[in-house]
Amino acid sequence: MSVVKLNNNKRKRQYVNAFVNKSYILVIEDQKEISDLLAEMIVDSGFAVAQAREGQEALDIISELGIPQLVITDIFMPGMEGLETIIRMREQYKGAKIIAISGGGQYKRKDILHYAKNLGADYTIEKPIDFKELFNVMYELLDEDFFKKIAAS
């Protein structure tokens, strides 16, 4: 598991408290540059982040930290890929909010996000990621309880 570290002590306390309160966003992305960029932007927006490189690692993180408030998952990854991850999450964690992202893989399959939506993703976004769209969707999917937990920490 990879966790983004913060420099500011107040934000570091807020971040640790968010994990204690199980208020975090899980990013599942095998491309380190994309994963780190997503995590950094999410942390800069005040959220705690855990990162996984594939689906099984993500499920292990969830079993350790609890159900995240939101999952952002790529589709094409080594190990457990995104579609299987979405299926498993819907079976085990029905209430999890899921955003699926994909550039279509090596074959540029743009239809893959349609399958992700049918399997249970709440929203899908094509790569390259439009970060304004991503954050609008994140705020739409996250409920008020999440913001109350963050404010209290």
What would you call the shape? globular
Count of extended strands: 6
Calculate Rg over CA atoms.
Answer: 14 Å
On the 0-100 scale, what is the average pLDDT?
Answer: 83
How can the largest sheet be summarized?
6 strands, mixed
Q: Which features does this protein show?
A:
153 residues; alpha/beta; six-stranded mixed beta sheet; 6 strands
Q: How would you describe this protein?
A:
It is a single chain. By secondary structure, the protein is an alpha/beta fold. Helix content is 49%, strand content 16%. The protein has seven helices and six strands; from the N terminus they run βαβαβαβαβαβαα. The protein has helices spanning 9-20, 32-44, 55-65, 82-92, 112-119, 131-141, 144-152, and strands at residues 2-3, 25-28, 49-52, 70-74, 98-102, 123-126. The protein has a six-stranded mixed sheet, with helices on both faces. Strand 2 (25-28), helix 2 and strand 3 (49-52) form a beta-alpha-beta unit. Helix 3 packs parallel to helix 4 (82-92). The protein is globular. The two termini are 23 Å apart. The relative contact order is 0.16. The model is unreliable at 4-15 (pLDDT under 50).
Describe the structure concisely.
By secondary structure, the protein is of the alpha/beta class.
Chain-wise SSE layout:
Layout: E1 2-3, H1 9-20, E2 25-28, H2 32-44, E3 49-52, H3 55-65, E4 70-74, H4 82-92, E5 98-102, H5 112-119, E6 123-126, H6 131-141, H7 144-152
Parallel strand pairs: 2-3, 2-4, 4-5, 5-6
Antiparallel strand pairs: 1-3
Helix pairs in contact: 3-4
